[in-house]
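WP5 quarterly update. Target: Short/branched chain specific acyl-CoA dehydrogenase, mitochondrial. Source organism: Trametes pubescens. Length: 401 aa.
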Amino acid sequence: MHGSLRQFSRSHVVSSEAKPTSLDAFTEEEQMLRESVRRFAEDVVGPKVREMDENEMMDPAVIKGLFEQGLMGIETSGDHGGAEMSFTSAIIAIEELARVDPSVSVLCDVHNTLVNTVVRKYGSKEQQDKWLPKLSESSLGSFCLSEPASGSDAFALQTRAKKDGDHWILNGTKMWITNSYEADFFLIFANIDPSKGYKGITCFIATKDMGIKIAKKEQKLGIRASSTCSLAFDDLRIPAENVIGGEGKGYKIAIEILNEGRIGIAAQMLGLAQGAFDKAVPYTFQRSQFGKPVATFQGMAFQQAEAAIELEAARLLTYNAARRKEEGLDFVREAAIAKYYASQVAQKVSGAAIEWAGGVGFTRETGIEKYWRDSKIGAIYEGTSNIQLQTIAKFIQKQYS
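Structure tokens (predicted):
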């Protein structure tokens, strides 16, 4: 009898006074944010998307607009110049930007879910007072963890930091660093005591004018307007007061922040897939063959129905992970599931969207093919698909073994 009982171990109890809601229930504030970000994305970002992609460069006016719209300090307190909104609000903004341009979306995502969150969560009061207003109003942030020899194995990093009086001296290189070309503010992970292994990893605050060098700007398949660079640190002097979260605490910061960052990537992939769907489907009703719109042929109609189902599933997984994080519940498993699935859906739906539009979809003029190029990164950054599967598998093993 006991073996047949359904396990409810992952559920949480809702008090009898509070009624459960659907996963697409939003506050008035969140709904207003969605509408304003959608307008900004369509009106300001939309006309620049192709040019930015072709030039492989973010338009400074777009970055300036993101700050002016209050989208660069979504969760940050009003006292520090932020919008003081929910985590789900940040996820909504990332999703809506990705519907129009995933490159702009990831710029906003990394700045909010990684950079701002580290300063808010681990920074001292002095650090928060000094840096959060700048990050809310003008300074773009970058998160510097990956290196040539440390990708999925993030804690194999080789960048070193040595104490020199009231400064730390950093030497090493970073690779695949998002936002780094335009950023003024950098969170850099370095090891202050390799004999301690990953427990020597420490997080430092640095600014570009300290002497951070762009070694190489990558030319990529997709999200080409989002800068991805290699950085070189050659005796980079950082004030000791710029250690954030404490010496040797960098590994803890990185693990915790990347877990919630994955929900941001899920939102980016969700928005991307929806954007491709929204662009391709109307065309299939305008394009007629054999006397009727191609969308009305069963082969096409069923593909679109399946894509709509997968989009809805990705949306619910993403919002569920976001709400759990917001409620203070465990969300690591849910974040891994959302990130994995949304990145799969993004590739599948954006690829199908090209086929739905036929030859026109294959041209750069429509912008549909760009979604497919942009989708591939979802299976790679902030934890590859295999890393997500490994994380999910560990939860299964823990529950059933």
